[in-house]
Design a protein that fits this description.
This protein is of the alpha+beta class and 274 residues long. Helix content is 44%, strand content 26%. Strand 2 (9-11) and strand 3 form a beta hairpin. Keywords: Membrane, Signal, Transmembrane, Transmembrane helix.
Length: 274
C-alpha cells in the first residue's frame, strides 16, 4: 500500500515544492507494526557496532530491508523523493512539516475507535524512524531530514491503523485521514504568509524547541557513533593486553613453580633423603 508523494506534487520554483493535500483511507494493519519497527531499530543499533563489510553487517542490512518492506506493504505509506522537492538535500538538512487530521474520529465505528488507534511514523530510506506519534487524532509534526549524499534519497510517511483489541469480535474499521506535507523552510514560511496564519507565541516557541531538540538529537547520533567506535576499539585493545598480561603472569608462575619443585627434588636426593 505504498503511494508515491512525487505524483501528488507540483513545482513552485527551482527548489520549492509543495505537496497537495491528500485524502487517504487507512485500513487496519495486518501485522504488529510497532514491534516490527522496534526490531528494525535494534538491528540498526547492532549494525553500528560492526564493520560495514563484515558478514554479520551484510546479514543485518538484509534483515532491515526485509522488515521495512514488510512494514510498508502492511501499512499505508506515502513516499517523497527529496530531489523532486529540493536541490539541497545532499548538502544540508531538510525541514518537513506533516499535518494530519482524522476525519470524524468519533463517528466512524464505535468499536473501531475504542479498540484501534492510528499511529504516525516517518522513516528514512534506510528504515530509521525519524519521528513517531501514537494515537493521532489531529497533529502537526515537524521533522528534520538529515542531509543525504544519495541523489535518490527519500522518506516515507506511514500510518498504522493498529488493532489494540485483537479478539475475534473486533473486525476493525478503516480510518479516513487528510494529510498535507510541506518540504523546505521557505515553502513553510510562504504557506503561512499566503494563508494568513500566524503562530501564537507559545506555539512558535514550541515549534522552535521541537526543531532544536530534533537538531540536537541528530547531532548527538552523528557524534556518538564515531565516539562509540573509538571507545569500543580502546576497550578491545585494553582487553587484549590484559589477557596477554594474564597469560604471561600465569606462565611465569608455572615455570617458577616447576623450577622450585625440581630444585627441591634435587636437594633431597643430594642429601639422601629420598
Amino acid at each position: 500500500m505504498r503511494l508515491y508523494g512525487v505524483l501528488t506534487a507540483f513545482v513552485l520554483g527551482a527548489s520549492l515544492c509543495q505537496a497537495f493535500q491528500l485524502g487517504l483511507t487507512v485500513p487496519p494493519s495486518s501485522v504488529d507494526s510497532a514491534k516490527l519497527m522496534q526490531e528494525v531499530t535494534e538491528y540498526h543499533n547492532e549494525l553500528y557496532k560492526l564493520k560495514k563489510t563484515s558478514k554479520k553487517a551484510v546479514e543485518l542490512r538484509a534483515m532491515i530491508k526485509s522488515h521495512v518492506e514488510k512494514y510498508i506493504s502492511n501499512n499505508l505509506c506515502v513516499r517523497y523523493i527529496l530531489n523532486e522537492f529540493t536541490e539541497d538535500h545532499m548538502n544540508q538538512n531538510t525541514l518537513v512539516v506533516v499535518h494530519v487530521k482524522v476525519v470524524d474520529p468519533t463517528n466512524v465505528n464505535e468499536l473501531g475507535n475504542r479498540y484501534q488507534q492510528l499511529n504516525f511514523n516517518l522513516i528514512d530510506d534506510e528504515g530509521n524512524t525519524l519521528r513517531r506519534k501514537n494515537d493521532v487524532k489531529e497533529s502537526r509534526v515537524a521533522v528534520t531530514i538529515p542531509e543525504n549524499p544519495r541523489e535518490d534519497a527519500y522518506f516515507d510517511v506511514c500510518y498504522e491503523n493498529q488493532m489494540i483489541d485483537k479478539s475475534w469480535k473486533n473486525k476493525g474499521a478503516n480510518k479516513d485521514i487528510i494529510m498535507s506535507v510541506e518540504i523546505g523552510i521557505s515553502e513553510i514560511v510562504d504557506n503561512l504568509e499566503k494563508s494568513g496564519t500566524a503562530l501564537k507565541p507559545v506555539q512558535k516557541q514550541a515549534s522552535d524547541i521541537e526543531q532544536e531538540v530534533t537538531k540536537l538529537v541528530n547531532q548527538f547520533v552523528a557524534q556518538i557513533i564515531p565516539d562509540e567506535t573509538a571507545s569500543r576499539n580502546f576497550n578491545e585493545d585494553l582487553f587484549s593486553k590484559v589477557i596477554i598480561g594474564g597469560i604471561v603472569a600465569s606462565a611465569s608462575l608455572v615455570i617458577v613453580g616447576v623450577v622450585q619443585v625440581l630444585w627441591l627434588i634435587l636437594y633431597l636426593k643430594q642429601n639422601k633423603m629420598i
